[in-house]
Amino acid sequence: MDVIRDIGHNEIVEITTPVLITWHDGKSRLCGDFRALNNYTKADRYPIPGIPHALDQLKKARYITKMDCMKGFHQNGVKPNSMKLLRIICYMGIYEYTRMPFGIKIAPAHFQRMMDTIFQEEILEHWIVVYID
């Protein structure tokens, strides 16, 4: 799954710079600085359950299993006409995301909606709690 692709050096970029995020465990993740884009992005008001809701659902469970969707946002493709808005520039060239990047305002709601749709029946039967950490 290609998350990002090289588009060369000759494309116009509205200037999005890469940001390297380092987590407490020492692992790093490359993100784009999409704050300017987020200012113009319409909010997606899809509800994202909080910790109290998840814990309330889990207290009724007889068994608990955890599944982690590794790089969950990257499971969502980006429409071709949106890719030009998701470009980053660095010394190696200009790149654009082909999958939903981290740092986009609507990414959490979009991912929650996708997971709720996939597991709709299991959620209704209280077999599953979808929680984004």
From TrEMBL:
<dbReference type="InterPro" id="IPR053134">
    <property type="entry name" value="RNA-dir_DNA_polymerase"/>
</dbReference>
<feature type="domain" description="Reverse transcriptase">
    <location>
        <begin position="26"/>
        <end position="133"/>
    </location>
</feature>
<dbReference type="InterPro" id="IPR043502">
    <property type="entry name" value="DNA/RNA_pol_sf"/>
</dbReference>
<dbReference type="InterPro" id="IPR043128">
    <property type="entry name" value="Rev_trsase/Diguanyl_cyclase"/>
</dbReference>
<protein>
    <recommendedName>
        <fullName>Reverse transcriptase domain-containing protein</fullName>
    </recommendedName>
</protein>
<dbReference type="InterPro" id="IPR000477">
    <property type="entry name" value="RT_dom"/>
</dbReference>
<dbReference type="Pfam" id="PF00078">
    <property type="entry name" value="RVT_1"/>
</dbReference>
